[in-house]
Amino acid sequence: MRILLVENDRLLSEALGRRLAEAGHAVDVLATVADAEAAWKLVAYDLCIVDVMLDDGDGRALVRSVRAAGLKTPTLMLTARDEIGDRVTGLDAGADDYLVKPFATEELLARLRALQRRSAEISAIELRIGNLLYDPRSTSLTVADREVRLTAQEHAALDKLIRAGDRVTPKRMLGEHLYAFHQDWSDNAVETLIHRLRRKLSEAGATVELKALRGLGYILRETRS
Fold first, then answer.
1. Could you say which of 87, 122, 157 is where a domain stops?
2. 22 plus 113 within the same structural domain
3. Where does the record place the modification 4-aspartylphosphate (predicted)?
4. How far is 138 from 142, CA to CA, in rounded Å?
5. Rounded mean pLDDT of 124-150?
6. Which of the listed residues 81, 104, 122 is the one where a domain comes to its end?
């Protein structure tokens, strides 16, 4: 997943960013309302984590602004104050969940998984093409009723490609979905990832092909018999 973390506590943001990256996510870490709002409106994030108190403003105002702009990204708010009023105003601003500091990192990860499942249930129950069945709620892939194991990045790429339907996904767009701002990536990195995903689908006997269209990008198509 591509995650936006908006937190001005450097030690906390570094620790969370590192833990989320270890879990296979691409994480953009920003510290101000201005930077976060610009990034949020530019990048299609899967999840956002926003602290209430930021150096240049209120995280609740940030969430309210992006919601007004039509962005529905599942959002978890962080706060150091365990008061019902603070939580109510945050939820009313458009946050989907709330977590009070200090917290266990495992609880944060569990809440993010719950938000991801909830979002997946709203957007789609199951995604199918050929004999490939992808469940976005559990991020599980089966081919001809057999489970296929994918890495977190391979899952993210497959999710993006299968949701695109019959539209081509440009290589640049796929790379920006898979990697955070601070990560150095190249066309070769995306090509290598696609090659691994294509090989796994082929070895599993998938009746789909992950086709590269030169100069355009990638598309997932059902193979013709």
1. 122
2. yes
3. 51
4. 12
5. 83
6. 122
d(CA 72, CA 46): 10
Q: 190: helix, coil or strand?
A: helix
Residues 61-108: pLDDT tens digits?
Answer: 999 999 998 888 999 999 887 667 777 888 888 899 989 888 998 999
Higher pLDDT, 116 or 146: 146
Counted domains in the chain: 2
CB-based contact 144:131 (threshold 8 Å): yes
CATH of residue 112: 3.40.50.2300
pTM assigned to the model: 0.65
> What phi and psi, each to the nearest 5 degrees, are found at residue 224?
-85, 140
**Of the candidates 61, 51, 71, the residue with the CA atom closest to the CA atom of residue 93:** 61
Q: Round to whole Å and give the CA distance between 172 and 182.
A: 16
Predicted local distance difference test score (pLDDT) of residue 83: 67
Kind and range of the H or E element at 132? strand 132-135
The span from the CA of 156 to the CA of 208, in Å, is 18
SS3 labels along 68-124: HCCCCCCEEEEECCCCHHHHHHHHHHCCCEEEECCCCHHHHHHHHHHHHHHHHHHHC
Q: Are residues 145 and 114 in the same domain?
A: no
Q: How confident is the model at residue 32 (pLDDT cuts 50, 70, 90)?
A: very high
3-state SS, residue 166: coil
What percentage of residues in the chain have a pLDDT greater than 90?
Answer: 42
Question: CA–CA separation, 80 vs 52, rounded Å?
Answer: 8
